[in-house]
Amino acid sequence: MTVQHDRPTTVPLSTGHVHVAPQVDATPPRRSKVTAGLAAAACAACCALPLLIAAGILTGAGAAILEKSLLAVSGLLLAAAATMWYLHRRSTARKAEAAGGGCASGNCGC
After folding, report:
1. What is the pLDDT of residues 35-65, one digit of tens each?
2. What pLDDT sits at residue 78?
3. d(CA 81, CA 71)
4. Which stretches in the chain have pLDDT values below 70?
């Protein structure tokens, strides 16, 4: 159990500015999330092909062609989403590095 004091603690006043370094945004951008969602939808549509064949909506030859194209589209969309996320992260890292140059040697240039 800790003892609490009746008097408030004092915080020394600083004479300079407090420099807060900009943070790198690691979350994927919205366009990358949408693209990954479309890739998941294409993959789900590919998994639904056997049901469409069983229901008589699709023939075997049409399903074979559709399956290959849906897999290709899904792969391309996933690659595009990953590339967009990588480019977004790289650009925010560069911006954070450029903004943090004022305090590189310990002397804040704010």
Report:
1. 999 999 999 998 888 888 888 888 888 888 9
2. 94
3. 15
4. 1-24, 100-110
Q: How far is it, in rounded angstroms, from Cα 51 to Cα 81?
A: 28
Q: What is the 3-state secondary structure (H, E, C) of the chain?
A: CCCCCCCCCCCCCCCCCCCCCCCCCCCCCHHHHHHHHHHHHHHHHHHCHHHHHHCCCCCHHHHHHHHHHHHHHHHHHHHHHHHHHHHHHHHHHHHHHHHHHHHCCCCCCC
Q: CA 64, 68, 29 angle in degrees (round to 5)?
A: 145
